[in-house]
Design the sequence.
């Protein structure tokens, strides 16, 4: 039964991921989410058989049936990534439970976690495309993360988080807010600080700190790799360490790594144990 659960949530994630990209393309454009999807190049209305997530893209070789223009790989990437994340969330929450009938807490935790992951996908893609994080996305994610504090690893419907858990969100966001204030928004946007509030509540202070460390390391490695690759390819648009790079995708990557693989990067216990063994 377990493989079927994972497959079900993977397929659900792929379908929802398809809607996410459609939503991202229309958000703040005045078009709304009503109306049929159409090719961005020729305006041809797409039939139902052209809207099957992943499958339609592969069958059509990533091209529009009308004008034969290339369809962005962002579609299939968002669908595939969302499907994988949904499957991983299901595996993390449901598989360790031996009961065949899940409790109310489990169902609520599943709903909150899937909703939070969905918002993270939307935030990541939107920031990559527009270099901004809409407040509504950050606030909704923070609200879900705060609700999760009252359910996380508890056997009762409601629990009472400690003061450190409640302060984790503001404490994690504080450094980002200070950097934004001191640099007057030149080094980092205030949207990252708002996103960090939800990260602190979602992972706790220790987990969020590890996620931030991973985010900065991953961001540094990718930035250096892009600059090196650009110099090798000799492209016109020059990149440097001062070039604008959206940081939310790195924050979200760090968050997801720590969520699925709990860790404490700053812990010195393994090193101390090795020294005094």
Sequence:
């Amino acid at each position: 039964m377990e493989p079927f659960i994972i497959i079900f949530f993977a397929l659900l994630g792929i379908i929802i991921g398809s809607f996410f990209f459609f939503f991202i393309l229309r958000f703040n454009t005045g078009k709304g989410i009503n109306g049929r999807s159409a090719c961005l190049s020729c305006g041809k209305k797409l039939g139902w058989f052209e809207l099957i997530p992943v499958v339609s893209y592969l069958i059509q070789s990533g091209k529009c049936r009308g004008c034969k223009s290339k369809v962005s790989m962002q579609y299939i990437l968002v669908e595939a990534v969302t499907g994988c994340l949904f499957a991983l969330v299901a595996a993390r929450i449901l598989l360790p439970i031996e009961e065949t009938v899940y409790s109310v807490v489990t169902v609520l935790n599943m709903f909150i976690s899937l909703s939070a992951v969905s918002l993270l996908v939307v935030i990541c893609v939107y920031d990559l495309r527009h270099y901004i994080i809409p407040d509504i996305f950050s606030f909704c994610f923070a609200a879900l993360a705060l609700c999760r504090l009252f359910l996380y690893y508890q056997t009762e419907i409601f629990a009472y988080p400690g003061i450190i858990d409640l302060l984790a969100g503001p404490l994690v966001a504080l450094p980002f807010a200070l950097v934004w204030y001191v640099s007057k928004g030149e080094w980092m946007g205030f949207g990252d600080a708002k996103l960090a509030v939800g990260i602190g509540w979602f992972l706790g202070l220790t987990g969020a700190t590890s996620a931030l460390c991973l985010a900065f390391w991953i961001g540094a490695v990718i930035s250096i790799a892009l600059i090196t690759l650009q110099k090798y390819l000799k492209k016109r648009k020059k990149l440097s360490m001062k070039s604008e790079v959206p940081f939310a995708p790195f924050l979200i990557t760090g968050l997801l790594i720590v969520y699925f693989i709990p860790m404490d990067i700053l812990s010195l216990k393994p090193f101390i144990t090795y020294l005094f063994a």
